[in-house]
């Protein structure tokens, strides 16, 4: 964990709990001595660009946390530089809950999962919404080949902090695309064996007829 994440996440009440439960000394050290952890390295960038979904948390003006799943083509969450990520928002169910929440508070949390490698990345940041003429540059930059969908806006997130979590309790899960790739050699082998089996059966049948 970087210093920036600790400084944001460890609020006075969190620190109080850490102190009460014996982990404050360890986390105070992180808060004071760790590297900042606010600029995405090549490792984080690569991880972000490999994702085809993430969860976006916002806070409503009534104080409720809200989480929405965002999905798209792999890499639809772009890395603009080591402190900025962004994506285009397509016309959807038109509830506009995240958008409404961002009108009140621009702070967001992103949760990115890689189930096969059992890795998760949390990002904290500030989001800006770009719409209309002013959004053209971002929309062009961030659009994927999902051209059939109506882009409503670009959401750009300034990264304040990020943190990786441990792998515990994450069940590995695989996408259909990943399973097809892994299974391809097995299917090829199966087809070859079936072909060989057919030939052998034909040979046996031929011998039986001759005998
Ligand atoms: C036709 C349709 C297409 C959608 N396509 C996407 C999509 O590609 N990616 C995505 O994250 N959500 C998609 N959604 C979900 C909605 O866009 C959802 O409104 C959006 O995530 C905003 O949610 P919120 O109002 O809860 O913040 C789609 C919804 C509909 C009805």
From TrEMBL:
> Is the keyword Coiled coil in the record?
yes
- Domain Pyridoxamine 5'-phosphate oxidase N-terminal: from-to ranges: 45-140
One Pfam family from the UniProt entry? Answer: PNPOx_N
Going by the entry's taxonomy, the superkingdom of the source organism is recorded as: Bacteria
User: What InterPro entries does the database record attribute to this sequence?
Assistant: Pyridox_Oxase_N, Split_barrel_FMN-bd
UniProt feature coiled coil, ranges = 183-210
Keyword list, A-Z: Coiled coil
Q: Does the keyword Coiled coil apply?
A: yes
What's this protein's name? Pyridoxamine 5'-phosphate oxidase N-terminal domain-containing protein
- UniProt source species: Edaphobacter modestus
